[in-house]
Amino acid sequence: MPDPVKKKRVDGTQFLPKEFSWGNELLSSVVVFLVALPLCMGIALASGVPPALGLIGGVIGGLVVGLISGSPLQVSGPAAGLAVIVWEVVQKHGIEGMATALVLSGIIQFAAGAFKFGQVFRAITPAVIYGMLAGIGVLIFASQFHMMVDDSPRSNGIQNLMSIPEAIYKGISPDVGDRAHHLAAFIGLLTIGSLLLWKRFHPKRLSLVPAPLVAVVIGSGAAALFQFPVLFVSIPDNMLETIRIFEFDDLLLFRDASLIVSAVTIAFVASAETLLSASAVDQMHNGVRTNYDRELLAQGVGNTLCGLLGALPMTGVIVRSSANVLAGAKTRLSTIFHGLWILVVVLVFPELLSVIPRATLAAILVYTGFKLVDLKQVKILKHYGRFPLIIYFVTLIGIVATDLLTGVIIGVVLSLIKVLWAASHLEIEIKHDLQAKRVELTLMGSATFLRLPLLAEALDDVPQGAELHVLLHKLRYIDHACIELLANWEKQRKAQGGTLVMERDDLLDRCLDSSVGRQYVP
Questions:
Q1: What is the DSSP pairing of strand 438-447 with strand 315-317?
Q2: 459 near 490, Cβ under 8 Å?
Q3: How many other C-beta atoms can be found within 10 angstroms of the C-beta atom of residue 305?
Q4: pLDDT tens digits, residue range 191-211?
Q5: Which of 13, 49, 220, 385 is most buried (CB neighbours < 10 A)?
Q6: Would you say 497 and 466 are in contact if contact means Cβ atoms under 8 Å apart?
Q7: Helix (H, G, I), strand (E, B), or coil: what is residue 148?
Q8: What per-residue confidence (pLDDT) applies to 122?
Q9: What's CA 472's distance to the chain center, in Å?
Q10: What is the pLDDT of residue 4?
Q11: Which carries the bigger pLDDT value, residue 79 or residue 14?
């Protein structure tokens, strides 16, 4: 009798594998829910929108994307990586502008998945990806540092960074402004301290209790116990009232071309972050591998629906996904159930969320932003030479100094320059044997028309009547222009008693014209 639990694989996924356990899936879903709940609200605040919109995005990420995703164990929801872009869009176009841009972003992602562009998004050099995440981390850290002391973030990343000393001063001075900045700072530091201590010293039997949840409970408990006059999360009694249904008149907002640019940026960043996360999740388990095109298509469906309902955009998120895998999830049911638990809290227990101080959520994002600047990746990139490090830091600085799209474009352009340089770089090593009248010319790299002057100069330096040996074993490629130069040089020197000898190898057999190199060394 066949196993009733084992189902057929469809599109690279397997809904219920043989090792499936309802207990594991339910436990994992609760763990992911507890991780996602504070992050959904915190990222919403960082994006400049009500926390309810982040929670709705989390529900869609679980119930909709979780059901059709190409990466069964990946968890989708509001992501810190999009907070910077969304904040800029909301400041300029309002929440309706964010929703309109998100509809277009979702359509772009859906089309990319439908036309099998999933692997194309993965073709971005890691130096740009890690530089992008680090730049986003710096921006989140700088903006949420102000929120952690119940202050308002500044208008751009540079100003947020430059005004951090001012935020520190407010956080240590009891009598500055009309808010209790010092008490908010205390709650924020208590939250970060609780998070770090729990990560390091938690009891083994409570290892599945997520550190962000512990930090939120301690921060909220302290604020309630001492009745601190700090800012709290604002949650409406009826969360469904926050849903904003998309109207066709909203399309008129695209008359501002900058909104289209923002939509494309959201689609690009969301796709890159999702597929990077999916790749990392694949390395954490031995189950079904990710179907990248299906994952892009699912993200497109989810983000389009978020735009239609006015919710926060989403990506696949590595923090929630890793918690899902480590908690023992084997199927997509864990992701789906985590969205269901968020929906239950939104509909039944919204008053529980209003006791959370804003400083607590901001503190968690300060820590998240700090962790996005992963120095381990810098060490890894260093092993590949200086240029990947240059790409990393230029991308990071470009994002902080300008905006996310510009910084990423700068990084991609630098990567292309690196490829062109590597494809055209030629080194020439010359050895003279004066007694034997022999010259060895070793070509290394790629001999293309771009390096024709360098090769011509080296040939001109060969003494009259010398026997020239051209060694190609270290050459990756030689084009017709360089072959023609060698042929012409041979014709000119032959009349003067010179000889051209070229070493035979596979490259020579493929590229060398019959008119050049009539003598070979076997």
A1: unpaired
A2: no
A3: 20
A4: 999 999 998 888 888 877 888
A5: 49
A6: no
A7: coil
A8: 67
A9: 41
A10: 42
A11: 79
Q: How far apart are CA 298 and CA 308, in angstroms?
A: 15
137 pLDDT exceeds 60? yes
Its sign, for the CA torsion 162, 407, 112, 74, is negative
Q: Among 304, 392, 320, which Cα is nearest to 65's?
A: 304
C-alpha to C-alpha distance for 3 and 7, rounded to whole angstroms: 9
Sign of CA dihedral 439, 445, 447, 451: negative
Spatial CB neighbours of 265, under 8 Å, sequence gap ≥ 6: 85, 404, 405
Most confident by average pLDDT, 21-30, 70-79, 428-437: 70-79
Contacts of 186 (CB under 8 A, 6+ apart): 228
pLDDT in tens, 448-460: 888 889 899 998 8
Measuring CA to CA, which residue among 104, 47, 107 is closest to residue 77? 47
Which pair of tokens denotes residue 256? 């501002």
Maximum alpha-carbon separation in the chain: 99
Domains of the chain: 40-415 (no CATH), 425-521 (3.30.750.24)
Whether pLDDT at 17 is above 80: no
Task: Name 261's Cβ contacts closer than 8 Å, sequence gap at least 6.
Answer: 405
Give the CA angle between residues 40, 46, 50 to the nearest 5°.
65
Amino acid at the residue 43? I
| Distance from C-alpha of 519 to C-alpha of 499, rounded to nearest angstrom | 9
Here the tokens at position 53 are 């919109």
Compute the distance between CA of residue 186 and CA of residue 193 in angstroms, rounded to an integer. 10
Tokens of residue 90, six digits? 């909301």
Q: Which residue has the tokens 């084992």?
A: 6
Separation of alpha carbons 17 and 437, rounded Å? 74
SS3 116: coil
Query: Does residue 357 contact residue 219 with C-beta atoms inside 8 Å?
Result: yes
- Looking at residue 133, its amino acid is L
Query: How far is residue 501's CA from residue 305's CA, in Å, rounded to a whole number?
Result: 68
More confident residue, 21 or 70: 70
CB 324 within 8 Å of CB 334:
yes
